[in-house]
Amino acid sequence: SNDTRSNDTRSNDTRSNDTRSNDTRSSGTPSSQKPAKSEVKSASVPASGRAGNAMAFARAQIGKPYVYGGTGPGGYDCSGLTGAAWHSAGVSLPRTSQAQYGAGRHVSRSELQPGDLVFFYGLGHVGLYAGNGQVLHASHPGKPVGYDAMSNMPYVGAVRPG
Predict the structure, then answer these.
(1) Is 106 a catalytic residue?
(2) Which residue out of 78, 87, 106, 140 is catalytically annotated?
(3) Of the listed 87, 106, 137, 140, which one is catalytic?
(4) Average pLDDT per run of 10 along the chain, which is 162 residues long?
(5) 153 burial class (0-12, 13-18, 19+ CB within 10 angstroms)?
(6) I need a surface site. Which of 47, 57, 132, 152 has the fewest CB within 10 A?
(7) Distance CA 75, CA 81 (A)
(8) Other C-beta atoms lying within 10 Å of the C-beta of residue 26
(9) 140 in catalytic set
């Protein structure tokens, strides 16, 4: 009986997760914020030092527009966001995603830590690893800075700046 209620609660939780973006009572967050964002934010908390500072900067940019060639503060393209994030942490990165691929120690996918630069589309795109298989990035025109699953893009490799 208790197990059934527990399972029923999980079902209700799943339905709640599907509709939580319309309900701000439990989290107090704006309805435009998706549940995965808050979960990913907690995943990036363990980042420390410069990586932690870079992630904090990038999280503060969530919702800003994608701007081709943008390096902030009003909007960003992919490498503009990663460069500005790491610059806020005291690390200078080259301007383009291709050049950023050479700006640090290459790490395997299994070694990824929040703040690592993750590359996709044959080095044509870069974002910040946020933990739990998520990337924080400026993806394309019409979509603001935010989180996406790494599995949604063809992964190339990763670099740990600093």
Answers:
(1) no
(2) 78
(3) 137
(4) 35 32 33 36 59 97 98 98 98 98 97 98 98 97 98 98 91
(5) middle
(6) 152
(7) 8
(8) 8
(9) no
